[in-house]
């Protein structure tokens, strides 16, 4: 399990971006649940931790596709593929993460090479 | 240069090209509208977070909105990325953010850059540094005023100062509780005339007996041609038979209870330079904002404000609105009649002001001083 951050440092309604490869977004919902999904929208390179959290869904800040934090499924285009979900454990006030072993659904990323990121 | 001597009763107006020349209008945009406090909206037009309006202030498009903390914010309506106009609608409401329709740079209601494609791969882009650029903003009298200058003049000296110069003190306008009144009617006029013709018209009453028969009936002293804007602290008194400030002199609406006894049955008028004109009567307030569009075109937005109860109970304000609406139409017709002649060869050096209009000369001096075009005497 990977340690993420202290639960107390992640207020309800907010997200934490873990700089893993690919990055992971950890959400603390208004109801007090903690979920983790891939941070990158499957349509275009946008950070879902910058998105709009409502209930158990996050809306991509760029084109408004909504991802279910529990299943990773997407409600409507332009994103078509789900994001991966990751297993979360909260123990002694610390959030831990077990990364999914499934292949991620990352957006086409020619730009990443130009930006110096992973292709 | 030849000097024309005028009879003592007369002083000169501005030359005709001040009302037609796009270069002069450009100077006015820079040295007046972009340098001063400019009224852009009624606070209640931005009634909840995300409600917005876009307004041209001089050559700039300005976006005004209300943030989550209920404060009013104003920004240059320009995406920080490639300069696309962010909001193209005149008014509307966003749920959470303003998004550029070009590359989807996304800004929250505080103007902070919250998302953009590939943004996380460019961690050196400051979210505030590349957020929307703030414009100075104030709320007063229930209206939103902005100043697009980096170094705004004192709001108290300029805006409040113009009100005090006319009424004598600021308490006189505060007694009308304008921020707490409600818009009972709004009319927008598209006037094919230079903004200064409209201001000058508002400043004098030499025309009142000729073009405003209804107004002169309600305010008989207007027949002598001296406007409410000639004196300090003077309100024109209603005629003896007049019950209220209405088209036929019939009873008005519920009076504003905090208006003082000496303000009762009187009409006050104030010009707040460069583009606001306010009328005060015991039961309502009429609040004009002028939006100069071009040398020969001005949009005038006019609100009739009443006590909340009056508006909410659906009382009939039509006779009340009709009086000044008719005055507006009469005035703007007159301004539109002048505009074409401003480019006549005959008017190249301008016209003349009679004694009851001489205070307009002060407005002309002010315009020339701001533009730096004052002719050596």
From TrEMBL, chain A:
Domain Rieske: 2-97
Pfam families, alphabetized: Rieske
Domain of life (superkingdom): Bacteria
Keywords noted in UniProt: 2Fe-2S, Dioxygenase, Iron, Iron-sulfur, Metal-binding, Oxidoreductase
PROSITE patterns attached to this UniProt entry: RIESKE (PS51296)
InterPro entries, per database record: Rieske_2Fe-2S, Rieske_2Fe-2S_sf
GO molecular function, one term: dioxygenase activity
NCBIfam families the UniProt entry points to: PRK09965.1 (NF007422)
PANTHER family: 3-PHENYLPROPIONATE_CINNAMIC ACID DIOXYGENASE FERREDOXIN SUBUNIT (PTHR21496:SF23), FERREDOXIN-RELATED (PTHR21496)
Name assigned to this protein: Bifunctional 3-phenylpropionate/cinnamic acid dioxygenase ferredoxin subunit
Species, as recorded: Wenjunlia tyrosinilytica
From TrEMBL, chain B:
Keyword Iron-sulfur: yes
Ranges in a coiled coil: none
Transmembrane region(s): none
Keyword GTP-binding set for record: no
Domain Rieske span(s) in chain numbering: 37-146
Pfam families: Rieske, Ring_hydroxyl_A
Domain of life assignment: Bacteria
PROSITE patterns documented for this protein: RIESKE
Cofactor: Fe cation
Molecular function as annotated in GO: 2 iron, 2 sulfur cluster binding; iron ion binding; monooxygenase activity; oxidoreductase activity, acting on paired donors, with incorporation or reduction of molecular oxygen
Key words of the record: 2Fe-2S, Iron, Iron-sulfur, Metal-binding, Oxidoreductase
Protein's UniProt name: (2Fe-2S) ferredoxin
